[in-house]
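Q: Can someone sanity-check these two? First one:
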Amino acid sequence: MESSSLVAPIVVVAVVAVILVLFFTFVPVGLWISSLAAGVKVKIFSLVGMRLRRVVPSRIVLPLVKATKAGLSLSVNQLEAHYLAGGNVDGVVDALIASARAGIDLTFEKAAAIDLAGRNVLEAVKMSVNPKVIETPNISAVAKDGIELLVKARVTVRTNLERLVGGAGESTIIARIGEGIVTTVGSAGSHKSVLENPDDISKLILAKGLDAGTAFEILSIDIADIDIGRNIGAQLQSLQAEADKNIAQAKAEERRAMAVAKEQEMRAYVVEAEAEVPKALAYALREGKMGIMDYYDLQNVKADTRMRENIAGTETNAKSILEGDNSEQ
């Protein structure tokens, strides 16, 4: 009897202890007390609901305390909805506080949209207050006189919060600046005029409104450096001359080949004509139009011609041999 009377109170105490542990584990009482001490009224049942919705209560309550202390009017539902959407609640609150201190009109809905779009809203607010300088790489541009110029520019931009969602980024700004530099230098009559007045490039580029459709507002474009590169015009002329020479050589080779073919064709005609001579002689002898003595005379003339050709060839060879000996001496 005594043991059973002792077991019952122990069981009751254990059950109460377990219930209290589960209660304080599931219900963030400490966070609720901290919010009350900071003047933020959050119902304890709201904290329990956050647990049920698998929302970390500290991710909602602490930014809400920070926003309330900064004088912002935000609700638990707004922060919790942004958290459930996958946003950075703390970063959005920090951006709202920074924009309020800087006098920038930024609503919670706009800041949440920027954050959910993948942009760093706090960095955007900082860049809106403190403009950023973007330095372009060396941009190659060629003036009308064929001289290449390597231009480097520094672009001062400020974030445009209204166009931050859906606006183009820094790469688009750099690409447009490069296009403007190439166009401006290419329209210059001489590279010397560009070197004398580099500010003309900045004025012409700014007049084109290159920040349209981007998330930035271009404040200024400064030409940091201009270097002289290659003589593109001379290189192109050299390449053109080489191409013209190759074309002329190809045409000359074509004409030579045609001449060789024509010569071979004429030689074929000569050989064909010579092949008809014996037939003609036989026909003349057979028809009595040519006597046997005439035939002998013709053979003598041919033999005499061959003899003269041989003598002439021997003399030519002898002269070449003598000239070779004299040159060696």
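And here is the second, same format, sequence then tokens:
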Amino acid sequence: MKLNYDPTTDMLHISFGRGVEVEGFDLCDGVVVHLDAEEHVAGIEIENASARVDLEELQAVAMGSNRR
């Protein structure tokens, strides 16, 4: 899994390392699920991420920390 946060757009993209993202659909307002060619979840994109996700906790998880 790979996390990519862009603070200039406040967009978080979570990639699951599956194939190329070829299709996407809105799960809800501001959350898009991306599928690969075999319709497996390949990624999730979250708009206004700082209001929806605890970015500090996410960073700790991404770095392999067990802080809570």
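A (reply): Looked at the second one. Residues 55-62 form the longest helix (8 residues). The beta strands are 2-6, 11-15, 23-28, 31-35, 41-46.
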